[in-house]
Amino acid sequence: MSFQLQLQNQNTLKYLSSFLPILASDSQDTSLVISVRPEDLAFTLKALKIHTNTQYTVLSSISGVDYPERSRRFEVSYDLLSVKFNSRIRVKTFVDEITPLESAVSVYPCATWWEREVWDMFGVFFDKNSEIKRILTDYGFEGHPLRKDFPLSGFVESRYDDSLKRVVCEPLENAQEFRSFDFSSGWSENLIK
Question: Is the pTM of this model over 0.85?
Fold first, then answer.
């Protein structure tokens, strides 16, 4: 990153810190990254959108990441674009499995689909979003597949039953029992004498 861009990000961060409750900050490529508490998220997004000197009027994406070793295991990121000032910012917040985030739909109406995706894949619930339902998985799907503790094979298997003439979902049955491998080689120095 160029020195001029770094200086610009520092100045922007100093200015934003004067009116936003920023917990932490970082610079990635050409955009600034700020972290806020979940309860400050709605205020932060609205302030960034309507403030005269920021005008982040475009929400370009909402994404989630799972860090199961943390107490607040889900990181939810909002990528914003200011067309007027040709700048980007990422707003991050962290929640656990049971804490809902306030929906950004009142500030950015396009947020509803991304919030549905984050809920479907990670299980992060968005309060005040009336459209929260499955978007990428089937309505009968159990669990949230992008969580790190979700089993690779899933919980159920689907197959077409010729006699019933429909797709049947059944609990997963492993054809091979779990085995533990020690990965030792017969050619190791300990075994050859």
Answer: no
